[in-house]
Amino acid sequence: MTEGTVTAGREFGADLVVYCSDHMAGRLAAIALGVPALEVGNRVSWSMRDEEFRDGREHNARTGVVPDDAPVVTALRERLGLRKAEPDLVARIDPRAPSMGGLEGERPDVSDGVPWRPMRYVPFNGGAVLPSWAMRRPDRPRICLTLGTVAPLLPGGGGLGALIEALAGLDAEVMLADGETDLSQFGALPDNLHPAGFVPLSGILRDCSLVVHHGGSGTTAAALHHGVPQLIVPGGADNALCARRVVDRKVGLSVEPDQVDVETVRTAVERLLTEPVFAAAAAEVRAEIAGQPSPAAVFDRIAADLASRGSVGA
């Protein structure tokens, strides 16, 4: 992927490489192309700006990100002739809400002085035709249940059956956003469960009172954007870190996978639906996010920075 990215960048004459903090291919491509770069944080759970992740070792171990000294990275650097060069960064972006580790204004990085800038998280999950019932305002609490794209492919649907059983019988409408799992393995589905297949979360969360999910960074961030409380049953990667952020900010609760049973999940759901502290905190975070600079405004600033450098035509 790295070499293909470099080739594509050379063919169309890239002036800037934008890459995610945990995307080594973009970082190496920026070095190889010799053009400025913009590093964008793509997680709500962590940032390399965080003190606990400054040296990278703990971060790599906890999130599965490929470290700088991994053999594959060393081999790529040698093949591309990059040695130990680093990208020419214009800025780094932290898209987290201020009260969840993000920024209220620009701040230089403590190690290299490159500015960190805040940016509003705007969810984009592609498009889809929503079922007609999903377009109607619910007359009772609507719960979105999703385990992302990886867990449903695991044996038993990654614990989906246990969550379906726990949510059955609640006085709530449960929308199952899952286009991967063979639901026939769970037998007869409860009356309050509505399988919706793949649906973009950005199109359904506005009418939800709760999201039950695996702790994926995108799902967590989408729920924060819409101000919806969350119940997280964390899976792998940075899921546990997302759960910790959510619990610490009181925008939701977390249940460990080995603690999932009907009573535990129902108790957590009932708390999230009835105790106002969770909805209030979620609304506060939503307002914080709405008050941050839009991606368009951030990019206008980057374009101005590049023009002042003479990196692109004015």
UniProtKB/TrEMBL annotation:
Q: Which domain of life is it from?
A: Bacteria
Keywords (A to Z) from UniProt: Glycosyltransferase, Transferase
UniProt domain Erythromycin biosynthesis protein CIII-like N-terminal: residue ranges:
2-148
Any Pfam family from its record, for instance, is EryCIII-like_N
Sorted alphabetically, which Gene3D superfamilies does this protein's record hold?
Answer: Glycogen Phosphorylase B
Q: Which GO terms describe its molecular function?
A: hexosyltransferase activity; UDP-glycosyltransferase activity
Q: Which CDD domains match?
A: GT1_Gtf-like
Residue ranges spanning the membrane: these are none
**UniProt key word Cell inner membrane:** no
Q: Where is the Erythromycin biosynthesis protein CIII-like C-terminal domain?
A: 163-302
Give me any GO biological process, just one: antibiotic biosynthetic process
Family, similarity comment: Belongs to the glycosyltransferase 28 family.
Q: Which PANTHER family match?
A: STEROL 3-BETA-GLUCOSYLTRANSFERASE, STEROL 3-BETA-GLUCOSYLTRANSFERASE UGT80A2
The name this protein carries in UniProt is Glycosyl transferase
